[in-house]
Write a structure and sequence with these properties.
Blueprint: H1 3-27, H2 35-44, H3 48-59, H4 63-76, H5 78-82, H6 84-105, H7 120-138
Helix pairs in contact: 6-7
Length: 146
């Protein structure tokens, strides 16, 4: 991998980490100034069709989508198969870190007492996408195949 690509990956990773840490600090402060208004706006748009779409999107962060997606990636990418340990490590570490972070931040969901930040579904989907992008950019394939 060229030095410029490595530098870009480092910049993206560092920028994402800084953004996540800033969001985490903000989440510990209780509701942010725009939270109640945003929640009311979202609830106002919550038509049955929007709720149905949200439920479909939510499934994207579950094993029902991520396991078949991983199997498909392994089927088409020899590079991904050789890096099986990366998948195992990240997919096992992500929920562990997410649950620990939820306890550390302690921000409850708007309704109920369960912790809601960071989202487990969003964490799982983000980890899958980042590792898939990493493997795709590392693969020795033409740009069309990637």
């Amino acid at each position: 991998m060229s030095a410029s690509r490595v530098a870009r990956w480092r910049a993206v990773a560092l920028g994402s980490a800084v953004l996540f840490l800033l969001l985490s600090v903000a989440a510990t402060q209780g509701p942010l100034p725009g939270d109640p208004a945003t929640r009311m706006l979202v609830k106002a748009w919550a038509t049955p069709a929007v709720i149905a779409v949200a439920h479909v999107i939510n499934v994207g962060g579950t094993w029902m989508v991520l396991v078949p997606a991983t199997a498909l990636l392994f089927a088409v990418s020899r590079h991904a198969r050789r890096r099986w340990w990366l998948w195992c490590l990240t997919l096992a570490a992500a929920p562990t870190v997410e649950n620990a972070w939820k306890g550390l931040i302690g921000r409850t969901r708007p309704e109920g007492t369960a912790y809601g930040f960071p989202s487990g579904h969003a964490t799982a989907a983000a980890v899958f996408v980042v590792v898939a992008l990493y493997l795709c950019t590392r693969a020795q394939a033409g740009t069309g195949r990637r």
